[in-house]
Amino acid sequence: MTRGLSDREQRVCSAIARREQAVIDDLALHVALPTGGGNRAAIDESRERLTSRTRALGATVDLRPGQSPPSWLHGAAHPHLPPLPVAVCRRDRGLGPAVLLAGHLDTVHDPLGPFQRLVIDGSRSRATGPGCVDMKGGLVIALAALEALEECGVALDWTMLLNADEETGSFQSSAVILHESQAVAQRPMGGVGIALEPASSDGGLVTQRSGSGQFVLVFTGIAAHVGRDFSRGVSAVNRLAEAVLRCAELSRPEDGAIVNIGPIQGGHATNVVPDHAQAWGNVRFSTTQQCQALCASLDLIARSVGGTCHVAVGRPAKPCTPDVERFALSVRTVSEALGLPLPFASTGGVCDGNLMQAAGLVTLDTLGVRGGGLHTTGEWIELDTLVRRCQLLAVSMMRAATGQA
Ligand SMILES: [Zn+2]
Description:
- The chain has 405 residues and is an alpha+beta fold.
- Strands 1-2-6-3-7-16 form a 6-stranded mixed β-sheet, sandwiched between helices. Strands 4-5-18-17 form a 4-stranded antiparallel β-sheet, with helices on one face.
- Strand 4 and strand 5 form a beta hairpin.
- The site of zinc ion (ZN) has 6 residues, from helix 4.
């Protein structure tokens, strides 16, 4: 008997506890699928395994085409391949508020690197593996939660989105995420968004995130032989350098405004005045107004030195609105009933939760699992909290879908 949970919620929690070994096996299976680096075979297999389980729960599954990202983005585009699709799994009984779950199949890990499998430590309290916490753990607890809810006869309306480009900015999947988030927010009974990102490092729930945008500064000059015609040349690299230093001065990290520049590229030989140079960068901001001011300043600086600037704001800022705070407090009540304290946190990191909330959907985005070492070859998951995090997710969904969140 867990104080603070209803009989029905406790039945769901028991159904989840019985699944513990199955969830760990499922995690090992998905961690062993190397979905980093745009590895389509593994991404397709991971998607198919997850979507077939949502089908078994009565969901319809649509594969929506992704969009091509801007051609100037650094490292995000696969120019010879079509954009990655987004799976939209929908179980809609038309009952009440709906829950939109968002998960990403991709990781940052090299699909051919040495970090390949889930390795469980001797005490079975922890495991390491590529993507185990970000976010394959989140994906497998979401499926286990949905299956336990169904087994216990708890009928909810939910949609699960599975994209595969979150780690490169979701430029291919953002239109689908925005569309589905708006659709849930505009239902007569509304709904909430939940992204399955891992908890913050202290196990906390992130209620506030910065926004993020990518940009490129492009400069052209006049090529000339360094020895014969140096004074006829115009160096694009010198223009770029001037702009880079001025852009860097825009950072005010204490106010949430960050401008980071790199990589940079320019010229092709030391004895030629370079006629082309460009630099890619990333801006972070805490409000829409700050974002607009930073973008305008980048553009002005580039133009004042004879260049151009392109910006793509992939993730708007995600403030802690009163509705988000209410939802977070409801989740905290559940977490404390399960014996897991849930501090609130804010971060400069971004995720698909930024997009969901920007579309008008009240969203919490760290309801996945707990662990650490994200994006490193030491990535680890707290196996001993896996069941409770799954229970937290399931009960939070129940309360949200019955208007108690
Ligand atoms: Zn993630």
